[in-house]
UniProtKB/TrEMBL annotation:
<keyword id="KW-0206">Cytoskeleton</keyword>
<dbReference type="Pfam" id="PF14738">
    <property type="entry name" value="CFAP91"/>
</dbReference>
<comment type="similarity">
    <text>Belongs to the CFAP91 family.</text>
</comment>
<feature type="domain" description="CFAP91">
    <location>
        <begin position="4"/>
        <end position="156"/>
    </location>
</feature>
<keyword id="KW-0966">Cell projection</keyword>
<dbReference type="InterPro" id="IPR032840">
    <property type="entry name" value="CFAP91_dom"/>
</dbReference>
<keyword id="KW-0963">Cytoplasm</keyword>
<dbReference type="InterPro" id="IPR026720">
    <property type="entry name" value="CFAP91"/>
</dbReference>
<protein>
    <recommendedName>
        <fullName>Cilia- and flagella-associated protein 91</fullName>
    </recommendedName>
</protein>
<dbReference type="GO" id="GO:0005930">
    <property type="term" value="C:axoneme"/>
</dbReference>
Amino acid sequence: TLGTQTDYRDGEAQTDPYSPEYVVPSGSVPELLTLATLTWGRGLPAGLAEVEMIERAREKRAWEATLPKMDNASQITKRRKMMDDMERKEWAFREQEIEKLQEVRLEVLKKLLQRREKNQNELDAKRLDGHWQNHQKAKEEKIKKIQHDCALMLRKLIAKRKNVMGKLERRDIIKEYTDFASQTYAPLSRIGYFPDNHSECYVVKNFYLNTFAGLCELEASLPDSFTQAKVKAPKPKYTTTKTGFIKRSARLEVELAQVHQ
């Protein structure tokens, strides 16, 4: 009295077709038994090749029915000739099948070769790209080195051009201290001065902070109010008013304490 409805159709839950047991009556050769070699997944469901095979089997059975009986020598010769012709036809058909199989294998082989060639080309392209990147990096490093050497030589030439005659000039201290871009205020590291190497000279050194005797002297000079703290006890808060009522804040504190518990 009840029906069920599923989310799947019968085809999605269908298993391989069932082949039941069968009994062949004596004296009969059903044509269906000629397809006993075909199973599900191996020839079934039948395609164009299977249909052609079935048609050839029917033609062969019809041809076998037309064979003459072996009563006399003439019938035997005729039968042998018909069988030779049929054998030649079968060999020719077999050769065609072999040629088809070879063509299919050749196509598969061509596809495999094309795929291998494609993969090899991609690998070669990656290798060439890597070599090109390495050469580009080496080229950029060489260009940077050439530019650095060029700037160095230009600075040397400019310095020589300033003193072409090779005269000795005295140091102008006033000019150096008035120019904030001079070597006095902003020395260059290329002439051998590194500001971070002498950074400890800017550290503040105090006798009272770096030595134990200084700390004792500093502590003795402090007044007593710094070393002896006086803490006054807090006065209790009044929870009631002058008229004797409990304040709202006190009630809230009691409720919060109860909730916390």
